[in-house]
Amino acid sequence: MDRRDLLKMIAASTGAAFVGSNAMAWGLKVPATDPSKVGLSKDDISLMSEVAETIMPRTDTPGAKDAQCAQMMAVLVADCYTPVQQQAFKDGLRKLNLASDERFDTPFLVLSNAQRFELLTELDAEARKYNAERNLWGAVNQRPNSRDADDTDPLPHYFTMFKQLTLFTFFTSEVGATKVLRYVGIPGKFDGDLPYEKGDRAWAT
């Protein structure tokens, strides 16, 4: 799967342009930053891991933990997000726990799997509404729908940032590409009429 196509798919599924898309789409070669240097602690990464696993759980195929999504998410936040975006992401982790406390009177990490799914489903609906209003604001003010254009524009909902990074890191991981998508290390000739059966997995290459 072409990385730009993946970014477009994720943007469509989350209702917001991909945060940090310029750096990720063009594959900029930047040194991996220690996530702790931008304020992401081990506890933050543990929380990100559980959020990602709730979004992409292990079923008959691997989940986010199998792909070590949280660790890669932390690197992308450190390397591809602007300082404003980094702060919004970190604030989002705090807001997530506040939402968990308000909804279930307990932190997210203590919730059952069913409670985690219920909470994130509610946040996803909240995020879609928020992003739709944000996109309308951008259209009225004739601002580009890109988070790399201007840090003064409203950012997507914090849950959207979590979901985008989860999907991106999962489907670009070795686990996601080979165990969930279909992958051929050395593709053969181009076939414009490849047979397709309903339910066939998408191609990673």
UniProtKB/TrEMBL annotation:
<keyword id="KW-0732">Signal</keyword>
<dbReference type="Pfam" id="PF13618">
    <property type="entry name" value="Gluconate_2-dh3"/>
</dbReference>
<dbReference type="InterPro" id="IPR019546">
    <property type="entry name" value="TAT_signal_bac_arc"/>
</dbReference>
<dbReference type="InterPro" id="IPR027056">
    <property type="entry name" value="Gluconate_2DH_su3"/>
</dbReference>
<dbReference type="GO" id="GO:0016491">
    <property type="term" value="F:oxidoreductase activity"/>
</dbReference>
<keyword id="KW-0560">Oxidoreductase</keyword>
<protein>
    <submittedName>
        <fullName>Gluconate 2-dehydrogenase subunit 3 family protein</fullName>
        <ecNumber>1.-.-.-</ecNumber>
    </submittedName>
</protein>
